[in-house]
Specification:
single chain, 7-stranded mixed sheet, alpha/beta
Length: 266
């Protein structure tokens, strides 16, 4: 199965998120048979060279609505969103990229950069027939009605059929910059068209340790700020509140993979 990540070179903390991509790729190679692809808005760099050396397909791509989004963000006084939008909305390009390349896959996996594979996710994938995509719960593992778009099992034919309509919805919704994100767009537009994934496919560290978790998603505080958080030198109160449960444990696993290139077992 094809697996997609996305990032734009101009995003804040590009180097640190590059490290998260490295760990995602290393743990995918250890635990899965996924075929990694990176949607990338930027110039070739050390990160893309490293990824290509490990079999990642680099696809140069810019989100089709980026110029319009940046204009609206400036008008709304939310210029801080401009650095992130070029990366987080690139997932919208996945169905179109696959069609352009003649890839006839029924389903592909998309994840944010801040994830780590702890096992093979494919045995837990549900039947998506009749749905557009599958997503796990947001902040409560017992509340699948509130979705998190950090891990998406995409059903490409269904998404491709509504690609133009979804694009127009996003264009109209841009005016709501105060709460507008990629997750908001997918949640609202596809409200009755997505299926719940098991929480083990989008496990949050603040939920505690889970030996059955297949994908750990660093939702909230990222592992690269752990030392600063523990020293009280960084992070918001919300991040400090979320740095509980198994955050330290999973951060240590993440650091070990990054430090050793994935050679040390969990």
């Amino acid at each position: 199965m094809k697996w997609f990540l996305a990032i734009n070179e101009g995003s804040p903390y590009f180097r640190q998120y590059g490290d998260m991509i490295r760990v995602a790729v290393l743990t995918a190679a250890r635990h899965t048979h996924l075929e990694p692809h990176l949607l990338y808005d930027g110039e070739p760099c050390e990160l893309t060279q490293w990824l290509e050396g490990r079999g990642v397909v680099i696809i140069n791509r810019r989100w089709r609505l980026l110029g319009e989004f940046n204009r609206v963000a400036r008008e709304c006084g939310r210029t801080e969103l401009m650095g992130y939008a070029g990366g987080i909305f690139l997932r919208m390009e996945v169905p179109r990229v696959c069609a352009e390349r003649g890839w006839a896959d029924e389903e592909v996996l998309y994840t944010d950069c801040d994830i780590m594979f702890m096992g093979d996710p494919q045995p837990l994938f549900p039947d998506l027939r009749g749905a557009f995509f599958g997503v796990g719960p947001e902040s409560d593992p017992e509340d699948p009605a509130h979705m998190n778009s950090g891990v998406m099992l995409m059903r490409l034919p269904a998404l491709a059929a509504l690609d133009g309509s979804f694009e127009e919805f996003v264009r109209i919704a841009m005016a709501d910059c105060a709460r507008y994100t990629d997750q908001f767009a997918y949640d609202v537009y596809f409200r009755h068209g997505w299926r719940a994934l098991p929480p083990e496919l989008n496990w949050k560290p603040y939920w505690g340790e889970n030996p059955a978790a297949r994908i750990v998603h660093f939702h909230g505080p990222k592992p690269f700020i752990r030392a600063a958080l523990e020293a009280g030198m960084a992070g918001t109160q919300t991040q400090r509140d979320m740095a509980r449960g198994a955050y330290a444990h999973y951060s240590e696993v993440w650091e070990s993979v990054l430090r050793t290139g994935g050679e040390i077992s969990n």
